[in-house]
């Protein structure tokens, strides 16, 4: 099949590369010339394990191309994926759909034969209807079909999630499109992915409902962790005990700092905005948003307790600052709230992240970056494990921290409390 991915952000690039690896001819289009030139040279703008190798392999095989020419790319393709950003609007919780609608207008100028137009970007319910309206102003409805096909990729695990998805959701009642798309996804269906064909609106909602539910699961376990800390119970035991019930499932029950990233915070807000538009009050999701927003303050309170409220001039080391491991993404990371609050109280922050120094912290005088773990931790009064990188699992703290009175606050529960006790290290974790 000939596919065109519009937008080479996270979703467009990963999906484009993976579709080409399944044997399709893929053109990835972006208006950013510099980005396109870099991609042609195998330079990718994001950190995603395995993506660079797969991109280079398929680019060399000529199955994958990069272009800034939208018109030409659309006219050469059978299926067009809209993969542009849908950020939260500056005022309020609604998703900003201006990029999606601009692309729809561009597409409407270039359709001469039947095309399937897919929203892969996360878009609120009824966006497909709007896209159809925009395109039908210029093109006969017989010549196109607008389908919702949400993605469920996690940053850091995106290639595996693309290759072995639990399900492929196709939102269309157009029989021709359904047949073509089932065929496109057949290599994944034959490996076990369930194929779910629904209405377009249902597919749009499945995406938001899934993210909101996962965010709810995390928030639920985070709040239980707060209770565990008061009653001398280990949250890890609760996660295991609950997760073994197949109706609940063990994944996304890891307590930690506030959830972040480019999806959960944005999508939970957007689904409540959609519901408000249709006069429905999603109280559970609203309270999830609130609880998660409070979580960074709770984490800070714990830091203050560990340091006995003496924050001024304390050396605090953050190991990992991204919103989770295996990504360089800082969007809505809880470190962006915690680090400025600690500096305000007079702390000196030193951090290490396997994906390098972050622009977000360059503006602060009291934040420094170390390019290795040993340097990062050596002068610390407190070491905060903010992200769960494997790189942090075997650190010899006793040997490498020069200040003998240091403490560790493990926000991801990656160490054994018993081992820390044996080593006489002051160790604090979540929900314990
Ligand atoms: C999320 C969804 O998991 C994907 O299915 C979806 O496709 C994607 O959003 C999207 O809409 O594009 P992602 O944001 O990459 O993926 O990352 P997750 O692995 O879901 O983690 C999100 C946040 O939850 C992170 O801050 C992570 O640390 C936190 N988390 C996750 C926990 O605190 N505990 C857990 O058990 C799991």
From TrEMBL:
Keyword Transmembrane helix: no
Keyword terms of this UniProt record: NAD, Oxidoreductase
One GO BP annotation of this record: UDP-glucuronate biosynthetic process
Active-site feature positions: 263
Top-level EC class as recorded in UniProt: oxidoreductase
The enzyme's E.C. designation: 1.1.1.22
Coiled-coil ranges (or none): none
UniProt pathway annotation: Nucleotide-sugar biosynthesis; UDP-alpha-D-glucuronate biosynthesis; UDP-alpha-D-glucuronate from UDP-alpha-D-glucose: step 1/1
Protein name listed in UniProt: UDP-glucose 6-dehydrogenase
Gene field: ugd
């Amino acid at each position: 099949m000939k596919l065109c991915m519009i937008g080479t952000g996270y979703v467009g690039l990963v999906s484009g590369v993976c579709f080409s690896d399944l044997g399709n001819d893929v053109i990835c289009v972006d208006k950013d010339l510099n980005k396109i030139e870099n991609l042609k040279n195998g330079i990718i703008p994001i950190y995603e394990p395995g993506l660079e190798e797969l991109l280079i392999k398929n680019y060399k095989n000529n199955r994958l191309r990069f272009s800034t020419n939208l018109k030409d790319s659309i006219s050469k393709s059978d299926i067009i994926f809209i993969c542009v950003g849908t950020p939260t609007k500056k005022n309020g919780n609604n998703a900003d759909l201006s990029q999606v609608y601009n692309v729809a207008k561009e597409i409407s100028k270039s359709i001469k034969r039947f095309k399937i137009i897919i929203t892969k970007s996360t878009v609120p319910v009824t966006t497909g209807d709007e896209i159809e309206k925009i395109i039908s102003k210029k093109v006969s409805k017989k010549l196109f079909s607008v389908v919702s096909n949400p993605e469920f990729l996690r940053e850091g695990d995106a290639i595996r999630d693309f290759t072995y998805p639990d399900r492929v959701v196709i939102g269309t009642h157009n029989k021709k499109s359904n047949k073509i798309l089932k065929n496109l996804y057949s290599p994944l269906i034959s490996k076990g992915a369930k194929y779910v064909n629904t209405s377009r609106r249902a597919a749009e909602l499945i995406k938001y409902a899934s993210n909101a539910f996962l965010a709810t699961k995390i928030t639920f376990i985070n709040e239980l962790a707060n209770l565990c800390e008061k009653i001398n119970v280990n949250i890890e035991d609760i996660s295991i005990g609950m997760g073994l019930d197949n109706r609940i499932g063990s994944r996304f029950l890891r307590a930690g700092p506030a959830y972040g990233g480019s999806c959960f915070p944005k999508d939970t807000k957007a689904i409540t905005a959609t519901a408000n538009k249709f006069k429905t009050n999603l109280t559970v999701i609203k309270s999830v948003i609130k609880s998660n927003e409070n979580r960074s303050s709770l984490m800070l309170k714990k830091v203050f307790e560990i340091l006995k409220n003496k924050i001024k001039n304390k050396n605090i080391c953050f190991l990992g600052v991204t919103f989770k491991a295996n990504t360089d993404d800082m969007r809505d990371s809880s470190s962006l709230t915690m680090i400025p609050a600690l500096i305000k109280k007079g702390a000196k922050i030193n951090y290490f992240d396997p994906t390098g120094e972050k622009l977000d912290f360059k503006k602060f005088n009291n934040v420094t970056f170390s390019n290795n773990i040993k340097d990062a931790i050596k002068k610390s009064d407190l070491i905060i494990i903010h992200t769960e990188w494997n790189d942090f699992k075997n650190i010899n703290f006793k040997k490498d921290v020069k200040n003998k009175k240091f403490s560790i606050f493990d926000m991801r529960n990656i160490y054994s409390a018993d081992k820390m006790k044996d080593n006489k290290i002051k160790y604090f974790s979540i929900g314990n």
